Amino acid sequence: MDPQTLAAFLSPLALAVFGLCIGSFLNVVIHRLPLMLDRGWRIDSAELLDVKIDAPAPITLSTPRSRCPSCGHQITWHENIPLLSYARLGGKCSACKAPISLRYPAVELLTALLFAACGWRFGAQPQVLLWCGMVATLIALALIDFDTQYLPDDLTMPLLWAGIVSAALGWLPIKLGVSVGGAVAGYVSLWLVFHAYRLIRGKEGMGAGDFKLLAALGAWLGWQLIPSVILLSSAVGAIVGIALIVGRKHDRDVPIPFGPYLAGGGIAALFFGEPLTRLWMLPV
Q1: Which residues contact 146 (CB under 8 A, 6 or more apart)?
Q2: Are 117 and 154 within one domain?
Q3: 114 and 98, same structural domain?
Q4: Which residue, of 121, 152, 187, is where some domain finishes?
Q5: CB-based burial of residue 202 (10 Å sphere; 0-12 exposed, 13-18 middle, 19+ buried)?
Q6: Does 284 score more than 50 pLDDT?
Q7: pLDDT: which is higher, 167 or 201
Q8: 3-state SS string over 142-162?
Q9: Range with the poorest average pLDDT among 60-69, 81-90, 140-149, 184-193
């Protein structure tokens, strides 16, 4: 492919259009992956306990076809065009007029904007698709954790190994040792916080999925950016948590998922991590 064609296909505008399509797929992943995992756990548990259960209906990312949760209307292809279909339908099911969650177009738009930002940040080179893949995975992880307070290994571990392998192949701007060091630093730092909190408060403050997510971010960004990711995600998490408690919309004893803030901190560090790191490390 000649440079001009490559530049056109990997331009911010082209990546934004690609991001709309990926965002539509992410909506499926966010909704169905937890259901798929839950179904597998139920069947595995029944086999281990040697009991019979009514197995939940099979579900994958592609089957069954998407339907309206209110009336069961099967979504047609022209009702599934990113952003446009939502606007054309007025945010309602074409059959029963039940409202469609605003999250669906929001995820599509967010993915498109972040893909375009990757194109702006990294330029028209094939490696930009790696960063787009990382961002897409973080969006899915953030919303799954928000919904279920669970960060599935099915996403965190491939993200971790993809970062290490990409660094080993020279596709990332960091060396393999920096990538591995970032993975170790990310995991160990939250592991230490977890055990310190448990010793002080006598209860667990986060899950192992958070360790793995920060390890994955370290594999992609390098150990140098781990402090910035933690500071960014902790600051946002603290602000949101305090606001929810003060507004009496959240019981302080009910855990708040940390994954969305880690994902947000990782995305912020991807675009602004180096200047932020230089800023907070300046001597007073």
Answers
A1: 257, 259, 260
A2: no
A3: yes
A4: 121
A5: exposed
A6: no
A7: 167
A8: HHHHHHHCCCCHHHHHHHHHH
A9: 60-69
